[in-house]
Design goal:
Elements: E1 3-7, H1 12-17, H2 19-28, E2 33-38, H3 43-46, E3 54-57, H4 67-79, E4 84-87, H5 92-100, E5 105-109, E6 120-122, H6 131-141, H7 157-169, E7 178-182, H8 194-208, E8 211-214, H9 221-230, E9 236-237, H10 244-253, E10 256-260, H11 263-270, E11 275-278, H12 284-287, E12 295-298, H13 317-320, H14 324-331
Parallel strand pairs: 1-2, 1-4, 2-3, 4-5, 5-6, 7-8, 7-10, 8-9, 10-11, 11-12
Helix pairs in contact: 2-6, 7-10, 8-9, 8-14, 10-11
């Protein structure tokens, strides 16, 4: 039996974008044992994925920060006797782990940092490629022929039951239609103004007679409370009340999800729920929804360079220029 290790990337959205690559490996090597080495924060994204036999966590700033921790991981990887490793991230430290673990075949994109440690160097792809295609480029470079570019987020019956329970506890009836607003983002400039989300929530209730559910992580609780306080109608607040799997199950039950560019946006795409995606400083051609799902991307064309990483920008006109009416039209 072939034993394959996939070295994953560090972020939630990118981990979802990598799932078509993992599926391509499984389709090409159906009888193989496939493990993924990933950051602990991405583990939940991959749990339940039928293409994976094992998830191994790697925390470079925690458990494996020091030499003893890294040597312990090297020993663990050695003991698992992998014969092939794919590395999805250009990283000297991670590629060195594979080298020290004596994995015979080490496959990834050629790069100045760590290319010398690879046994098969795939030429770097052009700039501006969507992340799904970026990862699949490694699969194609290794001779695989991926059948689909759709990324996936897997939820179980337990997750669905947890979603039903929390929705019922918050007053949402079993068969009641609702639309989710996900107002968070991992940096402020990616966030649509909270007052716009409040107006949007009221208009959804008024025009479509649908319940509005606000979702987010614990760090988004204050943001969701501000939105809810501004609304004239009552919203259901789930911020900080779900793990990622329960959140995915909530999205699966929703009629639509309206979200900034964020990990939860891609979880909604991964469970095949219709999505309206709000983009400003980031490039949807690189990190936007992808595949044959049902989604609408809203982004105004301005004179700013995109992607933009000017975190000191005080204008944020790229997000402010998306009107509430634009979103309502997209929902319709």
């Amino acid at each position: 039996m072939k034993r394959i290790l996939i070295v994953n990337v560090n972020w939630l959205g990118d981990t979802l974008f990598a799932t078509p690559f993992m599926r391509a490996v499984r389709e090409t090597c159906p009888g193989s044992y496939i493990a993924v080495l990933t950051h602990s924060r991405c583990k939940e994204i991959l749990e339940g994925n039928p293409c994976i036999d094992e998830i191994i966590t790697y925390d470079a700033k925690g458990e494996h920060r020091h030499l003893i921790g890294r040597l312990s991981l090297v020993s663990e990887l050695k003991s698992k006797k992998f014969d092939t490793a794919f590395i999805l991230r250009r990283s000297l430290s991670r590629t060195m782990l594979l080298f020290l673990s004596k994995i015979p075949q080490r496959i990834g994109y050629d790069n100045k940092k760590a290319g010398f440690l690879l046994t098969k160097k795939i030429p770097a792809p052009p700039m501006g490629l969507h992340r799904v295609e970026y990862f699949l480029g490694i699969a194609r470079g290794a001779g695989m022929q991926p059948k689909s570019v759709n990324y996936e987020f897997f939820i179980s019956e337990k997750d669905r039951a947890a979603a039903d329970k929390i929705l019922m506890r918050e007053g949402v009836k079993a068969n009641e239609d609702f639309i989710v607003l996900n107002p968070g983002g991992n940096w402020d400039l990616k966030r649509w103004p909270f007052e716009n989300f409040a107006r949007l929530g009221d208009e959804i209730i008024k025009r479509f007679n649908k319940r509005v559910v606000l979702t987010g992580a614990e760090k988004d609780i204050d943001l969701c409370n501000r939105i809810s306080d501004l609304m004239k109608n009552k919203a259901v607040l789930l911020c900080g009340k779900t793990d990622l799997k329960t959140l995915g199950a909530v999205f699966k039950k929703a009629q639509k999800v309206i979200s900034n560019d964020s990990g939860p946006l891609h979880i909604a795409i991964g469970v095949r729920t219709p999505v309206v995606a709000l983009f400003g400083p980031t490039a949807p051609l690189i990190t936007g929804p992808y595949g044959d799902g049902e989604y609408k991307i809203l982004q105004e064309k301005l004179d700013c360079e995109v992607p933009c990483y000017n975190l000191s920008c005080e204008d944020n006109k790229c997000m402010k220029s998306i009107r509430v009416e634009d979103v309502l039209d997209a929902i319709k």
